[in-house]
């Protein structure tokens, strides 16, 4: 064994302790359990009551100065940081018999109680993650937030068996408590990404002697005392706190799959298996441990690729508080299998429906993505009396033969299975490149290009329906007003439902949109906020949406006259107006020409005082020659960042070009604006 004076591990350990000291921490000892337990920890020199407290709980291996040096340096200026040495690590010891992770958690909590810290967040890594989870679970009133890093608190017996296979050892302690340099190399190769295999023997031997030989027998007992991983059930519960899971992509101790499972398990879903078709079909699914009869049921149907815990982990976390969520593994995915010969999506759909029938769920909505979209569609089609609502994401249920041929060309493969069932890293890279998508239907989706959705239902149409629904839930209805005159002007607008009795008199507010999509797209957020306080009137300006005219007038004054005419015909004598962009120009003219009707005016992002030179500068910034080329993009390339260009910007293009040409402002270098005596109850400044 190398002498301390010559030992690089000894000197590096001193450097690490110095880093803790420089960060404002001191080494401290305290006794618990009537003197039966001694805990060594690092804590702040002086406590800053304005800073929150943070406990860092280390994993197996060296003492925490080796494990938390970088984090302590970063967190110490922002938190009162406490770094305990767990029992039988460093100087911490006990005469009590407890060896479980719950015992370690109680020691940490008792320590914090004794030193007077009443509220704190916990961060635990590896074995320390087990402890942090139990601190938060058992001392919930003391813990604020929880971070669990590279720690499978949901570990099952088979996960431990697989770890032993990867490490090529018989017992877990042979991995984490190495006795030879060869065993230490194995441990480091699994725990250090890109571990350098040619580390000198003498350095590893020095590390082994200095860091792994203390309290070996007692640490071995800690493995025996672990309560997790004793069976194939994940015993994890929702902590009802903000929990952050941190996981390395290349973690070989607890593979990243465990965090996907944790995300599902922590929401209260459990792994379940049931048999169908007289035992010929076995379905594995995730479902609620306890069914809440007040919540609707939701079935999430995955696509090709990994098992559904990978595909639905984010959605499950969001939906579980609001729905009874069921996540089946389709046939031949995960543990689901069948002896029957049928392989169609209709068969998959029938299997899902039979599953829901067997577990007693009579009514449910379905969400399907990719291949799961085909299945969801068929569930809704074949079992219509059971299905409430349907969401189909990135799934061309209207796919034709030529679409498949084009996909093969894009993927540069001969068979569809070569793409979706990759057998090499190169093919997997191709699949991942093609399947990076955005939103419900990504505009970069190369599996089922977004253009295919036009024949089915364009995603902007679906989202437009969602926006219309937001307006409806705000108490508005879509109405059409025909203005008298030879112009045959027709205005579509959203206004309070005339069939609903008015219990409270509210002031009227007109929202006037700008260039771009129809008003539901532009005012979706404001409607939810303003509807409880105002009677809202939201017109689509002429040549937007369904509003039209035979008049040749394309000026903003004509648009203003149409808005004022609608309000008069609706019987609204006084109202305030809010206009954005082009709508701000219209709102200004309504207030200017019908001043006796308008109470207040809000003009947002609208160049009322625009001069010719402002228009010239705008064209330069937009790198276009004409305003309509900027405001009315004609190709997907020009507006790639906006979802579904065609539905938002291509209707009535010629008439909208005329509107831009019909603007009376910006024609010369003088701003055409005059004061309004109604802006927030006082005269506005020009």
From TrEMBL:
InterPro entries associated with the record: AB_hydrolase_1 (IPR000073), AB_hydrolase_fold (IPR029058), Meta-cleavage_hydrolase (IPR052370)
Any single Pfam family the record assigns to this protein: Abhydrolase_1
Residue ranges of coiled coil: none
Domain AB hydrolase-1: 52-258, 296-401, 507-609
Domain of life of the native organism: Eukaryota
UniProt protein name: AB hydrolase-1 domain-containing protein
Organism: Cannabis sativa (Hemp)
Lineage of origin: Eukaryota, Viridiplantae, Streptophyta, Embryophyta, Tracheophyta
